[in-house]
Every structure is written in structure tokens, then in C-alpha cells.
Records
---
Amino acid sequence: MVDTMALLHPFSRTARTSRTAPRPAASAPPADASGLPADDEVLLDAPDDHLGATLVAAARGEYGPASELLAGTRVRAEWEYRDRYTRRLTAFARSRGEWLERWYAETPEDPDVLLLRAQLAVDHAWVSPARAELLRDVSPLITAAARGDDRDPVPWRIALDHARGTGAGHKYFSELWEAALRRAPLHYGCHAAALRYLAASWRHSHQECFDFADRAAQDAPPDSLIQALPSRAAFGYLTDGCAVEVPRERLDAAADRAIALSARFPAADPWPSEIRNKLTYVLVRLERWQEALDQLRLIGPYATSFPWTHLSEDPLALFLKMRAEVRARVAQQGAGGPRTERVERTHSRDH
């Protein structure tokens, strides 16, 4: 019988001590046989063409391309892109923020710079031991971002994350959630933030988290990113380590929904890569090896920090080790090796 803990725990230990991507396992088939790119071709959090050019400009201290990029998402109501670009731009600004400071100094009422400042302030507070106290001081920035464009749901996603960090009560959370839904009832970012709040508030109450995710997915179109929300609930359960059990059938159903959504996107597309990376983790934990390999082929060279940063300080190393293990398991099954149905859980850094 295969032990899934033996798959993930050694990976985490190795990833914490190595800052370079390891070579594939000796038992893994060649990259051309598995259909996967070579290890040295895999990129972590690779930006799309629009974001890539914007980051290059920001590195030169120019904020114009970032302003254009975010303004375009607002004008076209492309809220999922807006949310993703906001996260990536503020991640860059945490270490190189001169362009953002200049932008705010020159156009302090710009809704796009207000959004970035709110996200950046939450990010800074989140890693502090005084998180709750610092987050309370951030509230005016989130309010300013929400007033920048009343249609925009992204400030409300930030507000939902803020509510989780401050331990806000359910009444306040419900008010934020209703405001988010009025603006974009199918926004995945807000749904994922709400699920994270519920997971933190209902500690170990995974049935309730699955109920929330399943209802949202059932009400969403087949091509909506919300179809991946139940697999996010599955990730939370599999990394919690609590004694409460969720039926295997429910975990499989969550993975199946995400597989169907993944099939709607082209292979080696950076847009669905985070959903595919998270789905691959869930499939590995469910020991659905062939389907995990199928997702890795669709992922191509696009590894993402989530979910691997929740398990290791070196997400790329962990991703590559997981790929090698999946290839070995599929080869073993093809050679008549054992098939198993065990599901074990490990602790995550955050959910």
C-alpha cells in the first residue's frame, strides 16, 4: 500500500534546504516520453505578455504601463484579470515600490493606484506579528479603493481578506460579502476570499466549507472559475490535519469539477495555471496519478506559487519533485504496480 505522506513530507524537507531546482528522479521517464517540459524550462509565476511588459517598465521606475493595464481592466470590467494583476503588481512593489510611490504622488485620486496601495498595505500587515492591529489601521485605504470605482469588486475581495485577518464577526463579513456579490456575483477572487474567511472562522468545519463551495459552483456557469472553488475547499481539508473526515466521494467530485474546468482552457496557458497547480496537488493527495499527470501536461512550464508556498519555502523545487514522483507512479502503474485509495492529510502554512 502506497503512503501518500511519504510523497509529500520528504519533498517539503528537501525544498526547505535547497534553493535550486533538483534534477528529475532517476526512475522518472524522459521528458519527451512523459510529455512534460524539462525541469530547467519550468517557470514560477510567469507573467502573461501584458503583465510582463508592465513589470519591466515598473523596474525602470515607470508607472504608465501599470496605469494603462489596470485602467483597461476597469473600463472593460475584466475583474478577474484586474484582481490577478493587482496581486502581481503589489508583490513586485513590496521590493521595488518607487514607481508606485511616484504614481500616487502625481495622481492620488486614481482608482487604480488606490487599489494597489490598499492591497500593498494589507500584504505588509499580514506578515507582521501585530497583524490584527496593523490591519485595523489599513481600513481607510480599503475604503478609499472601494470608493474609487463603485463597480469594482476587487476592493471588496481585499476587504474580505482584511476581515479574516482582523477576526471580524459574521455579521460584518456578511455585509462585505453581500456588497461583493452586488458588484460581481461570479467573481472567483471574492469567492475564494470568502472561503478562506469561513475556513478560518469555522476551524475544522470542512463540511460547511464544502457546502459553501459546492453551492457556488452549482449556481455558476460551466466555464466560470468558481467551478474550481470546491477543489480549493478540498485543498483546505487535505492540508488541515484535523480529525474531521470528509467523504472520499466529495473530494473526488470537487476534483472532477476542476478537471472539467481545466479542459476548457488551452494547454500551457498561464491564465488557468494556478487552478491547475492546485488541482494537481489535490489529485496527488487522492492518488489519482494518471489524472495528475494529465494536469501536469496541461500546466506545461507554468508552475505557480500557490499551492506550493503553503507547503514549502521553495515552491519550484517542491513542484518539480512532485512532477518526478507523479511520472514515477504512473510508470509503476503501467508496469502493474499497486493502485491505492488512501487519503492522508498534512498541515498547510495558511489557508
Note: The beta strands are 43-44, 302-303.
---
Amino acid sequence: MIGILGGTFDPIHYGHLRTALDVQQHLGLEQIRLIPLRDPPHRTQPTLSAAQRLALLHAAVDDNPLFHIDTRELERSGKSYTLETLQSLRRELPEETFCLLLGSDAFNGFHTWHRPEAILGLAHLVVMQRPGEPEPARYHEQLTHDPEALKRQAAGLVLALPVTQLEISATRIRELLRHGQSPRYLLPDAVLELIRRRRLYPSG
């Protein structure tokens, strides 16, 4: 099974990386594919360019073989729709099982995504929950509490999985940098060093 984690990664931080690693270890995923979005349908445009965000991703994960950076959405024009990405992955890896990793907030809005039922036809959803959060309020028929079920079925299940509680956001990191403050310990040192060296997110 392969985990799919999409996002603007503006910038990548431990809130992305630690929770993805939690899922990988709990489910025994072969790898986590980090897929940076070019043009996100549900949020504002990223602050940094695609090339800049990609460089930060490489700084964060190039030393970890469990993480793989997948650039297909950066190379595709138009909106970055998850369905098109999964369709592309399915064509390349027809026998693979995909697990789409979502935070609780993203999952709560999943029904508004482009063709959500078609997405469930191609992948399982793994909802990364903070400790104490209630179980998902939607898709009860697809909900499972058995991680092994994801291995017995090609797609279509929703698994809620508690992950490390890290209240880290890219927005907060950008605010700290803009105010000349340090976001150290919120993101990998290699990412912070590259941000500083290239003067990304300059203070104002």
C-alpha cells in the first residue's frame, strides 16, 4: 500500500511529516508520496512558486527513503484535482492499493471535492485524527476500525487513525518569518536553512 499526502507545502513542516510517518508505521505502508499542488481548488494560491516549494520538500525528505516526492500535479496545467492524480497513479500502478491521507478538517469538506465518490473508487481514505476527536461524521457505511481491512479491499474504505498531536500550521510559520521571528523546531532545520539562505518569506 502507498500513502498519498497532497498539499501546498508552503512550507513543509513537522505537522505534515510526523503525522504521515505515524500512518506509515501504523499501516506498514511501502512509502508516502508527497504530492505538492500546483493550483489548489479549495484554498488561496501558495506564497512560494512551485519550484521553491519543491526545493523545500527535497530539503525535508531526501534523506528518508520512505518519503517520495511526486511532481505530477506541478507538471499538469489547471486545477490540481485529486481524482485526476489518482487516475494517473492507477494507470501507472494498476495493482497497487492507495491510501489518501487527510486531516479531519479536510475530510469534513471531502464531500465538496470534485467527484468524491469517484475518488473513493480509487483509494481508501485515512483520516488523521488528533487524540480525542470524534470519529468521522460522514461516510458511515464505508467506515472501518480495522486497518487490516484496507489490505483486503482495493479501495472505498474510510479509516480514522489517531496521530501525534502537533498544532503546527504553515500559516503560523509564515507569520513568524514575516515578523522576523524564528520558527525553529516547527519544521526541519534543513528547510529553515534553505528558507533563510534564499530569503523566502521575507520579513516586512
Note: Residues 7 and 36 are 5 Å apart (CA to CA).
---
Amino acid sequence: MNLESFVEVQPHSHFPIQNLPYGVFKPESGSEARPGVAIGDYVLDLSVIASAGLFDGPLLNDTDCFNQTNLNKFLGMGRPAWKEARAAIQKLLSATQPTLRDNEGLKRKALLPMDKVEMLLPIAIGDYTDFFASLHHAKNCGTIFRGPENPIPPNWFHLPIAYHGRASSVVISGTDIVRPRGQGHPSGNSPPYFGPSRKMDFELEMAAVVGPGNELGNPIDVNKAKNHIFGLVLMNDWSARDIQAWEYVPLGPFLGKSFGTTVSPWIVTLDALEPFACDVPKQSPHPLPYLAEKFSTNYDISLEVRIKPTGEEHTYVVTKSNFKHLYWTLSQQLAHHTVNGCNLRPGDIFGTGTISGPEPESYGCLLELTWNGTKPLSLGGATHTFLEDGDEVIFTGCCKGSGYNVGFGTCSGKILPSPK
């Protein structure tokens, strides 16, 4: 039976009743932030629903998790509470259920036009980790910087490589990104270059949002890892390629990454993504036992990147990729993250790394698309190698169901000039 909502949902909408992603919003300027769920062109205010006593299940009937300014408390309650909430919200929004449908006063308070509210970061992010989980991206980067003979180091096929990112500079979609300044490679015998980055890039990623964490010293089993992952967001892990190339030996990325990371406002739950589970690429050699899953799945999420050049109204598609191309799964990333006893906490996020596919049009960053600036892109007659001041980058992601979509909305940001 195809579930339908009494809220009108357009056929192209990312937010039908089959999705119900979570976010945090303010109804108007100066009001208190509160959790909500997207349905069509509306936001369902969960604080109103909770105050009306409509979460009456055993796990949610006596909690203030939806009267918080972020989702962290709800995330920490775990999968049983998430499933209870999803079932209650789906029932409440269904076309056959009169409780909210026929209560005009409650409907006015609880269902707010999405274009009238202010979306905020939905979680308080304690820590942020960025993985390097795409085989095609790893191969392309290795070929660009080290040549085609041995582009991928041998350890890459044995463990999901990652680095610790900067949580303080994770921002919500729509936030402008200031071009960073830093050092770049010296030219000849000159001192290193210092100034605004000359190679500003986007990175097409997704990020997993951690639910219940683990105690320090207590790893998470790879086959139980999904119980610790609430859902996914789109993520643009902006990169200053010239700064990164000069600084990353021997300890890895620092200033070339920490200036800004953009995430989409809606967290799509793993439950909503389950119908789109798909096989993972063959892993060879076979992973070590702590990374060997009984059932390995990726998700068939179509991803697209558009660039709106400075001064133009038109946007240009530069990338079409898919989450299913990832070599290392979310569960493997989480299990590896904690195998040394590292403790994760509700609201932590970990990025997948750039999601590139096998074809040139599916490469997930300008470094690959322009082959480090040697093959410029044509955008409306003008050529681009890396991002220019005023350029806006827009990510979208969507799963195609039978007569409906499960989507992530957009993740966007514009590059502003470096301060003088």
C-alpha cells in the first residue's frame, strides 16, 4: 500500500511521507529553535506535537527531547525511540488519520511553510571526522600527485583512512564561505607563497550523524554499527588545494580544510533510506575480521553538483555521482573509528570523503574534473579551473522510489573574497 499524507506533496518533492527527515528551525526571527520534520513544503513543529501529547508511545511520552534547541537528546535515545517517533509521525500525517488533519487550530500551529522558517544546524557537533572512502577519488588523486604507476597506497585497501576535522567551522547550507589565506608551494628559490588560496575547490560528500555513542575503550561491532547511525546529510567539505598540498606532509590536512564545511539542514534517517539499500563494490583483499560485515550495504543516492558563476543567474551541472560508489561502508567507517576505543557521542558526524564515480562526469571535485587545473571546464562560455569569488556551489541528493522521492534538499554555499 502506498502511504499518502493529507499534506499536499508535489511529485518532484524531496520530502514525502516516506522520508520525514529531521531538522531544527526557528519559526521567526528571535523565536526559540526547535526540532521539526519536513513534509512537502511544510515543517512539522515537533515541539507543538509533543506539547499536544501526541507522542504517546512508551519511549517518547515522558521526554522533553522535542523541546530542545538541537536533536542531540533524541539521537542519544537510540533506534527504538527513532522508530517509535517515525511511526507516530507517519500515522499523524497520513491521509486517513483525522487527529491532525481535522484539527484546524493545531494544524495552523504545527505545520509551518518551509519558506517562512529559518533552518539551523540540527545538531551540536562535538567532533567531526572525514574519511577517504571512494576508490575512484583515491585513484584519481594519487594519479594526479604521484603518477599512474602506484596511485593508491597499499594501506588504503585494508582500512578506511580518515583525519580529524574541525567541528567549529561546520556551517548550515546557505552560509557564505570566505576564501581562506595560507601558505602555498614556493616557486624556485622564493619563499612560500602567502595569500588567498588560488585553488578553491568543493568536495561532494555525505556525512553520517552519530546517535548513541560508545564508552571510552569499548569499540562498536561492525555488525551493530547501524544502530549508532541516525542518518545522513549532504556535505561540502570545501578545500583549498594549494594550501593543503604544501602543508599536508607529514601530518595531513589542516588550514586547507578547517576554514569551512557546509551541511544540508535535513537529516534523512537510515530507516527512510532502507528501501534504497544496494550492494557494495567488491572489496579485495577481504577486510580484517573487525571490518568484515555479515551483510554489507550502500545506498542508491543520486548526487548532483551545480555551479552558479559569479554575476550569472544560470547554474551549470558539473558532476553527477552516486553514494553507491563508496568502497568502504558507513558501518565499516564507524567500526574502524572506534576499534581503538575512541568514544563517539550523539551529534558527532563523520564525512565519507569525496564521492567520485568511474566516469569523468561523475568526479566529485574540481581537482579531478579539471585534473588539477590542466583541463578547464566550460561554464556558459567562460572557463573555470577552480572556484572564483562570487561562485555558488549547490549540491542535491535524491533516491527515486516508486512514485515518490526520498531527498536531502540542497546544500549550498557562496565563495566570498578573502579579507584584505
Note: The radius of gyration is 22 Å.
